[in-house]
Specification:
Blueprint: H1 2-13, H2 22-32, H3 34-37, H4 39-42, H5 51-67, H6 73-91, H7 96-105, H8 107-112, H9 122-128
Length: about 130
């Protein structure tokens, strides 16, 4: 990376690349943001991307857009509840449709012990039934 940084600086310093060209602007941008763009090299275990966060934000924005079509406040609250449940299921690796189906099938057990029917542990409960 040190060699790459030196090469990039040399491209502009030695006028090997026109500063106003597309490549020159890209090199200038890269040099301006070098510290932030190479932060993952200074911290062991740092992720190379933040796709999980971007996907979560995309889901929230899509839900906000779809929520414009709810007819009542109660309908919007129910939609928010289901979006939260679906996202939680996805984060813990559970199929949201199967999870909600099992909640309906075992409504009495769910009412008695709701903590045992969370998306991350409901399969254990099913295995014991």
């Amino acid at each position: 990376m040190d060699q790459l940084h030196a090469w990039l600086e040399a491209q502009l310093a030695e006028k090997k690349t026109e500063p106003n060209s597309g490549l020159g602007k890209a090199i200038a941008y890269l040099l301006r943001h070098w510290k932030g763009l190479t932060a993952f090299l200074r911290h062991a275990g740092a992720p190379l991307d933040n796709n999980i966060c971007e996907q979560a934000l995309k889901r929230a924005v899509l839900h906000r857009k779809n929520a414009l079509f709810y007819k009542t406040l109660n309908g919007a609250q129910v939609g928010d509840l289901f979006m939260t449940l679906i996202h939680t299921c996805q984060l813990c690796g559970a199929n949201s449709f199967e999870y909600l189906t099992e909640l309906q099938r075992h409504a009495c057990e769910l009412a008695a012990r709701p903590a045992e029917w969370m998306p991350w542990n409901y399969r254990e409960k099913l295995g014991r039934l």
